[in-house]
Amino acid sequence: MGKLTDAIKHLIILNVIFFAATSFIGPSLSNWFALYFPENENFGFWQFVTHMFMHGGFMHILFNMYALWAFGSPLEQMWGRNKFLFFYFSAGIGAGLIYTAVNYFQFNSVYNELISAGMQASDIQTLLETRSYNSRILDVIPEKKLAEIYQIYNTPAVGASGAIYGVLVAFGMSFPNAKLALIFLPVPIAAKYFIPVLIGLDLFSGVTGFSIFGGGIAHFAHVGGAIIGFIMMKYWQKNQFSRWN
Q: At what angle do helices 121-130 and 143-154 cross, to 10 degrees?
């Protein structure tokens, strides 16, 4: 922490520009750059990259950019700009892919239940687009599942959190004894304990649907970024991957 390194500075500037542009232009920009479910008409493959520069509110971008500076700066100083950027975008794109894969599994699971219950594909599409459905389907399918499939289809993922969770993992593996603390738990804890617990809480929230840190969080994007970050770090540790410096 401390010095604002070159890549971190430019990433923060780009995120702020996208955030300001979204505030002025409105939802149309999100339709282009947020990460939509692949079956949604707004989906585009470029969104696996661009969603990392979109944020849902001031506090969202503030916390993400603070974490990027706090945990990314030591890594960029250690690795150099190119290697850090390669790691950052790999973790962010990987997070988006894993998040989408989990959503695809959950979506198809509910979709197949609806088909098995006798709902026509056209009626399911109407549900996905308008949230309208024949109330008789509630006799066999819980309303919670109808809300789940509608939300997966229509709610895009935004934010740099997936990439930053990869950065967190890399920081924890590079500086395992660095002391960290949460706002609501101001007791310094070594990174080698703190970061796995944080990821574990996200995994718990993603699996159970009980969000400890509030609603609207793409928990599996966080977990996905952490998984990609861990895999890359283990590979680099074994192979001394230094050609990006």
A: 70
- The single-letter DSSP state of residue 55 is -
Please write the tens of the pLDDT for every residue from 169-216: 999 999 998 887 665 556 788 888 888 888 888 888 777 776 666 556
**Nearest-5° Cα angle at 230, 227 to 234:** 140
Q: In sequence order, which residues have a C-beta less than 8 Å from that of residue 121 and are 6 or more positions away? A: 115
Question: Tens of pLDDT along 23-54?
Answer: 888 778 888 999 999 999 999 999 999 999 99
Burial class (CB in 10 A: 0-12, 13-18, 19+), 123: middle
Q: Give the residue carrying structure tokens 């509608």.
A: 150
CATH 3.30.70.1350 describes domain 6-239: no
The residue behind tokens 């599942």 is 145
Please give the Cα distance from 205 to 157 (Å, whole number).
Answer: 16
